[in-house]
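Changelog note: in this version the structure field was regenerated for every chain. One regenerated record is shown below for reference.
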Amino acid sequence: MQPRAQSIPAVLQTSVSVAMCLVASSWLGCGAPGGSGAPRDEPETSRAALTEWVVNGTFSTGVTAPWWSGANTQSLVEGGRLRVNVAGGTVNRWDALVGQSAIPLVGGRPYTLAFTASASANVPMRATVQLEPSPYTATLDQAVTLDGTARRFTFSFTSSLDTALGQVTFQFGGSGAFTLYLDDISLTSETGSGPVSMTSGFYVDPNSNPAVWARNNSGDSRAARIQSNIASKPGARWFGNWSGDITAAVSGFVNAADAVDKLPVLVAYNIPGRDCGSHSSGGAGSPEAYRAWISSFVTGLGSKPAIVILEPDAVAQLDCLPNDTERQTRLGLLRYATEQLRDRAPNTWAYLDGGNATWIAADTLAQRLESGGVRNIRGFALNVSNYIPTAQSNTYGAAVSAALNTRYGYTRPWVVDTSRNGNGSNGEWCNPAGRKLGATSQVGGGADLLLWLKVPGDSDGPCGIAPTVPAGTFSPDIAVRLIDGT
């Protein structure tokens, strides 16, 4: 089993990425959606079994209830939409607001807030899904700018709140007097659908490298600690050109998880030119071979619930490819993969890898993710096999999602690899000293999911504290140092 490794300095990659986009390289898409046929605004897996939680979001009854208006606002229905007259003299956003309360929120459940809005002046507005009583904790807090053109805004998120006292608010104080219009307000959740709600927790791989080592070395003084701290925790299994019959390998893994009502996490890692020829080089031998491989991978998933991380570094490492033709080819392969997952794996949430928070500017990454087909799937992945703190990754993820919304009119959630980020990053990526295990796999955590994607103890390559350990090989010394943070 091979991991991935980052081979181009982050600062260099960021500057090169931005420069190449400004030169208008066609491989970035620069606003043009990719893939065959018309792009879909939402993946098929997020359309089924939606429950609407907002009442009177279309204002078709001619009344405002149960929407309420706060101080400094006056609301009425006009022309089938909510008109809000906002008074001047306010300072804070929350000094003028409208909202709806008594909305139940379930922790760990995915939701989508959508609305159409315009205003008589160019003004900022804050849209929240939050706790109704103090301290008004928000699980979604998005800033938008309104003008005279009615625009549709859509934000997907996973609730960090578990309460019967949720509320949706629109806050617009501090901008003087103006008139605001709201319509088609919707808060939906995927109740009864999606792989998280279909299972009772994440799957612990009994045949992970740490588990196998601990079983085979039970007399070693380190075995019990590795079993307790790493091998017994849910984590991902990586699939690539070492996996043999890929359909059988994938179906065997997801079926084993399904048999115990658990959610498996898989990493597809077989893009041609993988890792730019560095420690984890390899991949399918041709574009045709990759299409056949990823199609067979998806066949193995079937309708079983699963999480799939798609091709770590494939988007972020576009810079290392020698020409636009090869970059276009890679993006086409990624779009094909996202389309296969969208169309043939109805109970899989897939995330296209987006590198890490120190690598590529958020706006540039958003362009690349769009060109790679992220609109076809659940979202994108960050920090795979790296050490960036979760909070920093979440800030970056929010910026990328906001850039997708600004450029293309949709948002996407993200997942964060937390397997080795307990002590954060020291700027090194290849078996650095002093790193530590991070938060175990869970729903939420500021992202869609926090996941152990890189297998703790598996080497990044012959480097750092393991100068003789090949990439993907388990080292008990690395594992113990991650447990101790040394």
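Spot check on this record: The chain has two domains: 10-45+195-484, 51-189. The chain has ten helices and 19 strands.
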